[in-house]
Design goal:
CATH architecture: 3-Layer(aba) Sandwich
Largest sheet: 6 strands, parallel
Radius of gyration: 16 Å
Mean pLDDT: 83
Helix content: 25-40%
CATH superfamily: NAD(P)-binding Rossmann-like Domain
Shape: globular
Number of helices: 7
Structural class: alpha/beta
Distance between the termini: 25 Å
CATH class: Alpha Beta
Strand order of the largest sheet: 3-2-1-4-5-6
Strand content: 15-25%
Number of strands: 6
Length: 208
């Protein structure tokens, strides 16, 4: 027995960046269980293929290989999904980078890479999605992490990248002008899933 009304998202379309593994793949599965058509995007083609092999058993799913740091590639993936499925109702920015390193031993490039994937990547996803959103009514959702608000050893780069995702006031989606006050698409939300409390699905796929 599910948490929501059967086929609650029937006729709705959802796009998930980073949706080929971990908690993001679990979200894609749950959305499909609720009746949504799903598009997932990842930098690695083999991960896209593996995710589609799983998701296609549940219904209509599409996959795209693109690096969230490349706006043109992200925009093209979103356009293709829109052409295949129609107006996008849910956009989830979940692609992320992480490694453990103290700030005094981290390279500038390592710090920058995580910010580009998490923060710039989120902007690319939301900005690229904007022309293809269902207006009004679409939801933009950032997958952040507890490091956005809590200190953790070796995670200064992650904290810097996750904090804007965690704040609906600072989220890249809000910067795209999608809020109701701007006459845009709809809602901008942020989720901070705490460690150890993800579903059996995300545990099965190896976490975030």
């Amino acid at each position: 027995m599910g948490y929501f009304k059967d086929r609650l998202l029937s006729g709705r379309n959802a796009f998930i960046s980073g949706g080929t593994s971990g908690i993001n793949l679990a979200i894609a599965e749950a959305l499909m269980d609720a009746g949504a058509t799903v598009g997932v995007m990842s930098r690695k083609p083999e991960k896209v293929e593996a995710a589609l092999a799983l998701l296609s058993q549940k219904g209509k799913a599409f996959g795209y290989s693109a690096d969230v740091r490349n706006f043109e590639a992200v925009s093209s993936a979103l356009e293709q999904f829109h052409q295949a499925a129609g107006p996008i109702d849910i956009v989830i920015s979940g692609a992320a980078g992480n490694f453990v390193a103290p700030a005094n031993a981290m390279s500038s490039n390592g710090f920058k890479t995580v910010l580009e994937i998490d923060l710039l990547g989120s902007f690319h996803v939301y900005r690229g999605a904007y022309p293809f959103l269902r207006k009004p009514g679409a939801s933009l959702i950032s997958i952040s992490a507890p490091q956005a608000t809590e200190t953790s050893f070796g995670q200064s780069h992650v904290a810097a990248a996750k904090a804007p995702r965690a704040s609906c006031g600072l989220a890249p989606g809000r910067a795209c002008g999608t809020g109701a006050r701007s006459g845009g698409a709809g809602r901008v939300l942020a989720l901070l899933p705490p460690p150890g409390t993800t579903s059996h699905r995300s545990q099965r796929h190896g976490g975030q």
